[in-house]
Design goal:
This protein is α+β, with helices and mostly antiparallel strands and 267 residues long. The chain has 7 helices and 14 strands. It has 2 domains: 3-147, 2-Layer Sandwich (Fructose-1,6-Bisphosphatase, Chain A, domain 1); 156-264, D-Maltodextrin-Binding Protein, domain 2 (3-Layer(aba) Sandwich), CATH 3.40.190. It has helices at 3-31, 50-66, 97-102, 177-186, 196-204, 218-230, 258-264; strands spanning 38-40, 47-49, 71-74, 87-95, 108-115, 118-126, 131-136, 141-143, 146-147, 160-162, 189-191, 210-214, 234-236, 249-253. The termini are far apart.
Amino acid sequence: MGRESLEAEYLEILDLAQQLARRAGAIQRERYETQLDVRTKSASIDLVTEVDGECEALIVAGIEAARPGDAILAEEGGGEDHGKSPWRWVVDPLDGTTNYAHGFPRFCVSIGVEHRGQRSVAAVYDPLLDELFHAVRGGGAWLGERRLQVSKTAEMGQALVATGFAYDVHESRDDNLARFAQVLKAARGIRRDGSAALDLCYVAAGRLDAYWELKLHAWDVVAGCLIIEEAGGCVSNTSGGPVPASGDEVVASNGLLHDAILAQMKT
């Protein structure tokens, strides 16, 4: 496939991802702060609702109708792998389910698309603020019609940083608390809002200067990592290498702070 045709396909895929993200977001907005069927998955704090399932079913059906040969990795198990496909959709239908179940207004739809293993297309939609973050590789990162650029903060003491805690935090000694304490003492401020995809987009938009989290999944980070890269930022694992395909750990920054935030990961 030539570069021009690949770029045209990127844009077609982005259009589909944006449409599906908006449609799933409309479900979330309609059901927000209504009575929900809340269940648990891997732990008592790992929640899922029927809205997660409805949104995933909508997104998966839309992908399969438009692009039946593409692979799909979705958080709730929808879609098929199609291991030989060059395209893989990585979908979190409702990132921030615990927030959503509690009526805390911090959640989104996250859709990332990989081409031959490379992050290539991203759409992250916050339905309450009606903010749609999006990117294609080589085309910049955008919030609606506004091109995104990471912050210019160069000192940890001036940085606003975000993180999160894994669902096994009640049982595991690898609980991120030591890193949290270190960054709390070093940074201007620290936030823990409960949506990895939005935290990553906020780094891209310059609202946050850095973010890190452990024990994530690919559907949490594929879209957001591309948006940060296209906004001029940096993403890595906690040692400074590539973010693992599993999404297990991610450190994100405006680039200027990357060495400083990596230094805080050494506990």
